[in-house]
Structures are given as structure tokens and as C-alpha cells.
Amino acid sequence: MDGFIKLSNFSKVVPYMSMFREGLMVTILMSVFTVLIGFVLALILALMRMSNVCPFHFLSTDKDGRLRDGGFLLALSRFNPLSFLATAYVEILRSTPVIVQIFIIYYGVFGMIDLPKVTLLGYIKFDRFFPGVVALGMNSGAYLCEIIRSGLQSVDGGQTEASRSLGLSSSQTMRFIILPQAIRNILPAIANEFVVIIKESAITYTIGVQDIMSAVNAVKGATFIIMEPLLVATAIYFCLCFPTSKLIAYFERRMSRGSKR
């Protein structure tokens, strides 16, 4: 296999440009669905981490009603199972390689589930596309969780007290007061996660997803050239990520100007 770049080899890539176009569409769709799944999952995880559910709180006092000075029972009284599960999920997924997670989801989880072998838009294999989206969405949720949690905690606590004085419940306060402001604060970070997912989605070709890197692999197998299709893929990823990054930076500047008084 020739590792040198030759201009004449680009003509061998031209017949496969339709595969690159299809891979481009798959990459965009996968990134959009991944961010949506990741955001919903991250919001749930962030609320779990910020929850105050302590089912063993009654153990914080002794039989005489006095607060314990320490010990196992006091530690158990402060145990929050929801926060523990969310924290464990976030730490595990942030500390393991994405490709390992994808293989576990595809071979371990969906290997036991008979997904319908349908083709979407004429070239997207659902039984490979869906596990890839789920795996990337779970990974993205672990990272977005910390972004959303920091955004929720950045809202002034006085607004919560003001909403309570107006008679709003905790859920109404979160829905109408805290969450809209938090979303505004973290929207640039969420948009940046979309750019990261565009690049990370390239790893899904290892489970047969027909993305941009899958087209590179097809050209390599048919023509025995590798550098030229890789350069084409690089150009496509750049044309996706660079304008998106600049658009995010533009809206971030607009939002920061709008928040200044």
C-alpha cells in the first residue's frame, strides 16, 4: 500500500465521492441524535447529583434524639443513592475509552437484542447506526452532566428563594426560573460538544456505521491507497467543524453582550 501522496491518486477517489456524501449525512445525523440523547441523559444525571434524597437520614440521631458525632451510622444517614449512581456513571464513562464503550454497547448489549434490519434513506443500516448513537449519547451525557450541573449551580440562589416566596414549587422553580437561565449560560458549551461529537463519531466505523471513515476504508480496500482518501476525509471534517466553531463563537459573543448591563 502506497503511503506517499500523489495527485494522480485523487482521481481514484472521485468514483467514491457518493460514499463520502452519504458518510457526511450519516455523521451529521449521528451527531445531532447523539447530542439530543446526551443532553436529556445529562439533565437527568445532573438533577440526580444535585438531589437531596437520603433514605437513611433518620440514622443521623441516636435514640435520645441527639445528633451523632460521627461513625458509620452518621455516614450512612448522609448517603444519597441517586447522587452515588449518577456520580459512578459519570466517572466510569469519563475514565474509559470511547471505543471500548462502543464495543460493549454494540456486542454486549445490542448483541442480545434483535434490532430490525432496515435501511434508512437508502444507505443507513439501522442495526448499526442506532447502537452507535446510543453509545456516543451515553458518553456525551457523562460529559454534559458536569456542564449542566455547573450551569444550574451558577444561577443565583436568591432567585430560588424569591420563587418560593411567590408560591412556586421546587419543580416549577427548576422549570421556569433556574433551567432557562442555566441553559443560556451553558449553550456555548453544549454547542462545542456537538463539534466534539462530529469528530468522535469517526470511531463508529469500527462497528460498521457508514460514516466518513467508512468511505475511507472502502476506498482503501478497493484501490490500495490510503493518504488521499484520508485527506479527503480531513477536508470534510474541517468543513464541518471549523464553520460550526466560528458560528458558536459568534453566538457566544452575542449572548455575552446581551447579558451585560
Offer a concise description of the structure.
The protein has helices spanning 10-13, 17-49, 72-77, 81-94, 98-109, 126-154, 157-165, 170-200, 212-223, 227-259, and strands at 119-120, 124-125. With 261 residues, the chain is mainly α. The chain has a single domain (7-259), classed as Orthogonal Bundle (MetI-like fold).
Instruction: State the fourth-level CATH superfamily.
Output: MetI-like
> Averaging pLDDT over every residue, what do you get?
88
CATH architecture: Orthogonal Bundle
Determine the CATH topology. MetI-like fold
Beta strand %: under 5%
Q: How much helicity do the residues have?
A: over 70%
Shape: elongated
Number of helices: 10
Mind telling me the C-alpha Rg?
24 Å
What's the helix-strand series?
Answer: HHHHHEEHHHHH
CATH class: Mainly Alpha
Structural class based on helices, strands and sheet pairing: mainly alpha
The residue ranges in which pLDDT falls below 50 over 5 or more consecutive positions are: none
Distance between the termini: 61 Å
The tally of beta strands, per DSSP, is 2
Number of discrete domains: 1
- Biggest sheet strand line-up: 1-2
Biggest β-sheet strands, sense, barrel:
2 strands, antiparallel
